[in-house]
Amino acid sequence: MRKHPITVQSFMIVGSLGAWLLGCPVWSEHDDGPDGFPVADAGTTDRPPVVFDTGPRICTVNRDCASGYCDPTGRCATTQSCTSTAGCASGSYCETSRGTCVPGCSANADCARVAANLVCDTAARRCVPGGGCTTDAQCAATPATPVCLGGSCQPRANQCQFDYQCTGSGQSCVDGQCIVGCTAANAATACAAGQVCTNNRCTYPTTGADCGGRCTAAQLCVSGTCLATCTNDATCGSNQVCVGGVCRVDTRPRPFCTMDSQCNANSVCNNGACRRLCPTPGAGTDGACLTVDVQFDLCRADTMGRSLCTSTNEQTPQCARSSDCTAGRTCVNARCQ
């Protein structure tokens, strides 16, 4: 058998490989320093090595650092330097007086990077749902969303007036919205996450403390409740809608019908509901109408001259919104209660 001679070069290769595997410096015959001693081979990488010790870490990009910030000197820093908010991570803004990124917002543009329709509450330095309102007058500047529903400006089509417009289980038209009823005993199951049972109705709190850091990066704190951020309805869950940049329970009226062909014989589609044609309008209740649907107990002529089964609330509504009622009363199914 032929034996291969072991050369000096073989020892160098094996030694170098072992040193590399053990994490030791690798010396090269061409690496002698000016004093005659060898120096460590820096390698061919264009990026400084990351030092895993208790001292300052060397970095080239933010992901090298546990803190997430690599400063211009190549050291990991606890804060990120900046000249504008564009240089900060989402959810932070540039405090130009210090030249560092800090959590929160200082202008609406900071919140637009988080989700659509969010604005900056400059006092609290946090992003909040946009289009906030308490009256319709505050929505006048946005013609496409002229009515104030649930604290946000929304299209007029999102407003209900009568219970029959709310086809969801257990819903009633309250102050222009289709709201689910509840009791103190069943609130945990009847109401959606983040809602509270107020006056036997599931609603979101309008005031509340800060969420205390409980919200995730994909959520926003609204009156003490963590709500998921969104850009459109498709990004929200089932039975939810994107309003003002956060996902909320869908309180819009859902018409049972949009055309006569969707109704049974001798019925027509009127205001989203199938109405029975009745023979002769009368002054009192109509027995024939009652046998079809007890909520439509009258026979009256509509604006098109047709005799249809209708209700007292439709014929003589007291309100469309709670603002139409005296202080302290709520508009429920077109009646002030």
Structure description:
This protein has helices spanning 8-22, 108-112, 187-190, 287-292, 312-315; strands spanning 69-70, 76-77, 92-95, 100-103, 118-121, 126-129, 147-149, 152-154, 171-174, 177-180, 196-198, 201-203, 219-222, 225-228, 240-243, 246-249, 267-270, 273-276, 298-301, 307-310, 331-332, 335-336. The protein has 5 helices and 22 strands. Mean pLDDT is 78; it is low at 6-45 and 51-55. Among the domains are: 1-44, no CATH class; 129-249, no CATH class; 260-315, no CATH class. The protein is α+β, with helices and mostly antiparallel strands. The chain has a two-stranded antiparallel ribbon. A hairpin with a 5-residue loop joins strand 19 (298-301) and strand 20 (307-310).
What are its keywords?
single chain, 337 residues, alpha+beta, two-stranded antiparallel sheet, two-stranded antiparallel ribbon, 5 helices, 10% helix, 23% strand
